[in-house]
Structures are given as C-alpha cells and as structure tokens.
Amino acid sequence: MITLKQFINLIDYRITEGCDYTWDCYGPNAYNLSSWNGDHDGHSLNVVFDTEFQTVYEVQVHDYKQNRAYRLIHPDCVEDYQREARERDVNPNEAWDDVDYVDLDVDEDFIEKAQAIIAGEDYDTRVSVPVNFTDEELLTYMKMAHDRDMTFNEFVEQALRAAIDDFKQQGILIQSPPFPADSFTQEQAREAVKKAKKKKRG
Predict the structure, then answer these.
(1) What is the pLDDT along the chain (202 residues), one digit of tens a residue?
(2) What's the rounded Cα separation, in Å, for the pair 39 and 62?
C-alpha cells in the first residue's frame, strides 16, 4: 500500500480539504484529505489514513474529463469496507453518477495513472495484476509465449481473458470486469495460465 508521504508528493503538497472519515470500517482515527485542482473537468485525489499510525487505508483518483475513477484499498480493509457498505445500503463501487471505481491492486499502477491524470496526459486504462510464478513456471510460460510469437505479458493477458470467459460461462461473472480483472488472485492467474497451456496441448 502506498504511504502518506507518497500521496503528498503525488499531489505536490496541494491539500484543498480535510475532514474526519465518517464510516467505521477504517477505525476511530481515520481522516480524509482531498486535493482538487478547481476544475470540474479536471481531477481530484483523496486519501484516507490513520492519524495515529499514519497507515493509509484508501486512495482515490478522479478523472472528471474522461469520467473515470480509480482507487486502491488496503487489502486488510476491503472486507470491512464492503461489509459496511452493505449495512448502509450503499453501492460500494460508485464514485459518482454512472461512474464506478476501478479497483487497483498495484501501487505503481495507481501512481502512474494518478500522475498522468494530474498532468492531463493519456494513460493505460488496463489494470495491473500482481502475479507470482515459481522460476520453473516462469521459464515454462516464457517458452510458451515465445512459441506463440507473443510477449510474456500478452500471453498472460490472453490466459486471463480465457479464464474470465470461463467464469462468465459458469455464471461466476455476470459482466466482464476492467481487464486484467482486479478481482483475480495470484492463484487464479496461475490457474488461468495453466488452462492456456492445456488448451495448447489439446
């Protein structure tokens, strides 16, 4: 999870608003800081952190020009946040009218998107997924990608897409999530690549 220092550096120390975080999911010391550039077609960023321990619980970046919103929630807090949203009968994904948050898993992904949004530059709207392979698995998959004349990233992305299609056919996914799917665990990603390997053999 990114640190408060990283967030402050990201917004270049421009804080436009602050208030207590009124939900209970992040504990009694949760505080929200906002940075808005003052343009309704511009951008804003929020951070929710612990005033005692300085732990960052959630960061958000809003791209009003492109109608996109991204957030990163501390992995230890996701379930508590979703539970409280259900208790309050609130859509946990809604950023504003007709715009849902895209949940990110990788700190660098959030930072890169936020930097581009702040600078008004184009950025990759795909979502990075952390995937860990053993050295043996990595070598095997890199060879498979080479055999298919693909980059390793293209190969993994194709495998994840195949797994998403599988889940949709099984009724596990009703709609395709932002790709690569932020809901994928590392184990699911590994299984997706294994499925691609089996299909090749078949």
Answers:
(1) 999 999 999 999 999 999 999 999 999 999 999 999 999 999 999 999 999 999 999 999 999 999 999 999 999 999 999 999 999 999 999 999 999 999 999 999 999 999 999 999 999 998 887 777 788 888 888 998 899 899 988 888 888 788 777 777 776 654 444 444 434 444 555 555 555 545 444 4
(2) 12
**45: part of which helix (H) or strand (E)?**
strand 43-50
Q: Report how far residue 157's alpha carbon sits from residue 43's, in angstroms, rounded to the nearest whole number.
A: 29
| CA proximity to 50, closest of 69, 27, 67, 74 | 27
Residue found under tokens 């184990």 = 187
Based on its alpha-carbon atoms, the radius of gyration of the chain, rounded to whole angstroms, reads 19
Is residue 34 within 8 A of residue 17, CB to CB? The reply is yes
Burial class (CB in 10 A: 0-12, 13-18, 19+), 49: buried
Q: How far apart are CA 47 and CA 49, in angstroms?
A: 6
Specify the pTM.
Answer: 0.74
Taking a C-beta distance cutoff of 8 angstroms, is the pair 191, 163 a contact? Answer: yes
How far apart, in Å, are the Cα atoms of 79 and each of 144, 159, 164, 183?
Answer: 37, 27, 22, 13
Amino acid identity, position 158: Q
Long-range interactions of 27-35: CB distance < 8 A, separation 24+: 29/53, 30/57, 33/7, 35/11
